[in-house]
Amino acid sequence: MESPVARGAVIILAAPPTVTGIALLELRRLERRYGVRPADHPAARGPLPGLVPPVPAQAPESHPAPAPAPGPGQPHIPVQGNRS
């Protein structure tokens, strides 16, 4: 009978090749049935030259002021105290 350690090692070491094999079969099926190839996807080509906006020379000097805290009676603030 096999030891539990050997059985666990086989399961752990066999998982990545199994997943890779299934992924390759699925990619081949997508290409055969639907004509889809990952190399044809626009994201696989990288950015087109000239379309990247220039980086600003310096950061903005100030950040906008934070929103003021809501006053009493605002609907999104829970009611304080016990009202019955």
Number of helices: 2
What fraction, in percent, of the residue positions are helical?
40-55%
Terminal-residue CA separation: 72 Å
Shape: extended
Let me know the largest β-sheet.
Answer: none
Structural description of this entry:
With 84 residues, the chain is mostly helical. Helix content is 42%, strand content 0%. The radius of gyration is 29 Å and the shape is extended.
What descriptive keywords fit this protein?
84 residues, 0% strand, mainly alpha
Quick summary:
This protein is an all-alpha fold and 84 residues long.
Question: What secondary-structure arrangement, pairings included, does this model have?
Answer:
Elements (H helix, E strand, L loop, with lengths): L3 H31 L7 H4 L39
